[in-house]
Amino acid sequence: MTGNRTALRISLIAIMTAIVAVFTLIIRIPSPIGGYISLCDAAVTFVAYAFGPFSGFIAGGLGAAFADLIGGFPQWAIISFIVHGVEALVMGLVVRKNSQSVAMCILAAVLAVVIVSGGYLLLTTLFGLTVFSEAILEVPGNIAQSAVGAVIGLLLYTGVRKAYRQLDSLRW
Question: What is the per-residue pLDDT across 109-158, written as a single tens digit (0 to 9) for each?
């Protein structure tokens, strides 16, 4: 890889990390156990589709964690990094070969829902942020957040790809 290509990827990851953080912070709806519902997954989905699984993992994980850190929820940062990083990685891997396949996009969205809702349920309990009986209250909101985010992110990706056909060449 040339130096210019490396610099471009690093720059894109930095910009996408900031976009994920902004999408996470711009609308926050409080949840029952002290977290919040946001548009994070829309940005995570866009990054995974547009720039691939590895860029998605870094930008999705770091952007969500930074949003928690600067938004007053530092106890959630490591969980958000893991959950949204893995969400982007898996989505990016699923659509890697064919991001225009409806079946692959649906599969990626379903996996995102499972990763986000299951990840937060499991990790908030394991990390001691709450007990399982309270963490289960978060599941419907996390399902809604990740499902709506997957649709919005796909629409953003589709629109940007139509305007900028070279977008797919930036996947890593």
Answer: 999 999 999 999 999 999 998 899 888 998 998 999 999 999 999 999 99
Tens-place pLDDT, residues 72-104: 999 999 999 999 999 999 999 999 888 778 899
Provide the CATH number for the domain around residue 30.
Answer: 1.10.1760.20
Structure tokens at 75: 């106890």
Cα–Cα distance, 78 to 59 (Å, whole number): 14
Structural domain total, the chain: 1
Residue type, 67: A
Q: What is the pTM of this model?
A: 0.92
The position carrying tokens 């990763």 is 115
Q: Which domain holds residue 136?
A: 3-170
Query: Cβ(61)–Cβ(85) under 8 Å?
Result: yes
Query: Per this entry, what is the length of the chain?
Result: 172
* CA torsion angle 38 104 85 25 (round to 10): -20
* Whole-number Å distance between alpha carbons of 118 and 123: 8
